[in-house]
Amino acid sequence: MVFRKFVQEIEKDGWVSDTARVKQLDMYNLSNAELRMQNNLPFYTLSYEDTHVDQIIDGNEEEALSKVQQIWAYYCRDKTHAYIISDGVIEEWQFEDASSAEAAFNAFNRQKTNLYFNTEPYFHQIKTSVYVFHTRAMAFSLDQKGVFEKFVKMN
Question: What is the 3-state secondary structure (H, E, C) of the chain?
Answer without folding.
Answer: CHHHHHHHHHHHCCEECCHHHHHHHCCCCCCCCEEEEECCEEEEEECCHHHCHHHCCCHHHHHHHHCCCEEEEEEEEECCCCCCCCEEEEEEEECCCHHHHHHHHHHHHHHHHHHCCCCCCEEEEECCEEEEEECCCHHHHHHHHHHHHHHHHHC
